[in-house]
UniProtKB/TrEMBL annotation:
Species the sequence originates in: Jeotgalicoccus nanhaiensis
Keyword set, alphabetical order: Membrane, Transmembrane, Transmembrane helix
Taxonomic placement: Bacteria, Bacillati, Bacillota, Bacilli, Bacillales
Cross-referenced PANTHER family: DUF58 DOMAIN-CONTAINING PROTEIN (PTHR34351:SF2), SLR1927 PROTEIN-RELATED (PTHR34351)
Transmembrane parts of this sequence: 12-30, 36-55
Keyword Transmembrane helix listed: yes
Tagged with keyword Membrane: yes
The protein's name: DUF58 domain-containing protein
Length: 402
């Protein structure tokens, strides 16, 4: 971390400067004969002022502040320690300095000094570093909620050992550090309805799906067919729209769709954090079965002009990237209505074999989901009740108990 010195003179130091200046002026211009004690005091003041300036100029030249554990991962509720190394490679010691660290309130320092309205957590530590040495400050904290916490600010107050007051150093630039809090992976285990990815139910009995790379022929266009499936050459020849017929495949791929918008307002659903905790457990179960899956949320990412997503994960090694993605999703952000989001998925995303969507539905959402059911896609709904089978024809199928 880099720091800038905010220079400020204390009132006592300013008073001594004025006194020393007056004595020097009287001695030079008025040939005043100063008492030997005044001369001694003047010499002490001038020496202290000179040493103080020398200390201020050189104490920062060889001061290095680094975060040792710059990437930390926790589950919600776990405790951790932020380790900061302070090294003084020069000859100027730092005695009883004060380090103040401010971070996002996704974590909470044990000695929290921040106001709640600031949505930050702040704490202070005292340290001493002698010349040519270093020390490590350990700041304990608790992972308070899902998200990513950064050190947004830090300040160092160093006492002037040859003068009065303190030197105030302020952080410039970012700390290049993050503390990521995963959703609680144990939350789903406490629900009355539990679910399990059953190999026979999901892979064997429902394994035939369209492969768009293998075209067998054409048929008459139906209302629910995608425009991408229309064979335009054959349609022009026949005089009416014709859709392609694809070969069937046993390849299984899941698509998880996260709804970050509530039913009637732009705010997130009240149970969104519980949904993230359920997704944390669910994706872990999918990873164990080595099922390929992708996750998309109806949150716009302005840097890419698309939606927040993580693609084609498979196996236990994919579990950490998913947890990190769930941690980074912001609930208070620019989102798209879920029915419009489903329409985008229908038109532009690769057709999966299974879809899991979160939250509740309404008439517009049901209409979009009907398209996927028409294509033979198995759909599951993840809500407060757990994981349930979605579909008017099949009815509601409860999740399989563990």
């Amino acid at each position: 971390m880099r720091y800038k010195y905010d220079y400020s003179e204390t009132q006592i130091a300013s008073l001594f400067t004025v006194i020393a200046s007056v004595l020097i002026i009287f001695d030079i211009f008025y040939a005043a004969t100063l008492n030997i004690y005044f001369v001694f005091i003047l010499g002490v003041l001038l020496s202290a002022m000179g040493l103080n300036r020398f200390y201020e100029r050189n104490v920062m030249k060889h001061l290095h502040v680094d975060i040792i554990n710059d990437e930390v991962r926790h589950y919600k509720g776990e405790s951790g320690v932020l380790k900061i190394r302070i090294a003084q490679k020069g000859i100027m010691p730092i005695l009883s300095a004060e380090l103040t660290v401010t971070a996002g309130n996704d974590i909470k320092f044990f000695s929290d000094q921040a106001l709640k309205i600031r949505q930050q957590t702040e704490t202070t530590a005292i340290f001493t570093v002698l010349s040519k040495s270093e020390t490590v400050i350990e700041i304990p904290y608790t992972a308070a909620k899902r998200g990513v916490s950064y050190i947004v600010d830090s300040r160092i107050s160093i006492p002037r050992i040859f003068g009065f007051g303190h030197m105030d150093l302020r952080q410039i630039g970012s700390a290049k550090h993050e503390i990521m809090i995963y959703p609680d992976k144990f939350a789903v285990h406490n629900e009355p309805i539990k679910f399990k990815i059953a190999q026979g139910l999901f892979k064997n009995n429902e394994s035939l799906y369209n492969d768009p790379l293998l075209t067998l022929g054409n048929r008459e266009y139906m209302e629910m067919d995608s425009f991408r499936d229309i064979n335009w050459k054959q349609s022009a020849r026949m005089g009416e729209l014709q859709s392609k017929i694809y070969e069937k495949t046993t390849y299984t791929e899941w698509l998880i769709l996260v709804n970050l918008r509530s039913e009637s307002v732009f705010a997130p659903p009240e149970n969104i954090e519980r949904i993230f905790e359920k997704l944390s457990f669910l994706t872990g179960e999918i990873a164990k079965e080595e099922i390929t899956y992708s996750l998309i949320a109806n949150m716009k990412t302005f840097d890419k002009g698309s939606y927040f997503r993580i693609d084609e994960l498979n196996g236990l090694r994919s579990y950490r990237p998913v947890l990190e993605a769930l941690s980074k999703i912001k609930t208070v952000t620019f989102t798209i209505a879920f029915e419009r989001f489903l329409n985008h998925v229908r038109l532009y995303e690769k057709v999966p074999t299974h879809i899991i969507f979160t939250g509740e539905t309404d008439a517009l959402i049901d209409r979009e989901l009907e398209y996927f059911l028409h294509r033979g896609i198995t759909i599951y709904q993840l809500n407060d009740k757990g994981l349930e089978r979605y579909g008017k024809n099949t009815g509601t199928v409860k999740a399989v108990s563990r």
